[in-house]
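Priority: medium. Attachment 1 of 2:
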């Protein structure tokens, strides 16, 4: 079975907060805020990875509830499109 990307998990620094969004593949227009954490709590790589894992599981649960299929995540994660990588939002 060929995998199809139906959206993405995107993270953005917004002031002193790191925010997780569920967004369409090529745009942040209409992105849904999933969660956020103070940047000071995710400076350590282990904590950052824990927040990412938590957001991945939350998105996977929602997608599985809607489609009956649990998504697979790329390893390593894809980088954001170039037009979204110019600093903080």
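Attachment 2 of 2:
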């Amino acid at each position: 079975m060929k995998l199809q990307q139906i959206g993405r998990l995107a993270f953005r620094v917004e002031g002193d907060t790191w925010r997780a969004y569920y967004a369409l593949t090529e745009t942040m227009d209409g992105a849904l805020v999933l969660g956020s954490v103070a940047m000071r709590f995710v400076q350590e790589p282990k904590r950052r990875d824990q927040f990412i894992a938590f957001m991945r599981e939350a998105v996977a649960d929602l997608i599985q509830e809607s489609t009956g299929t649990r998504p697979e995540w790329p390893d390593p994660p894809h980088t954001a499109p170039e037009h979204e990588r110019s600093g903080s939002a």
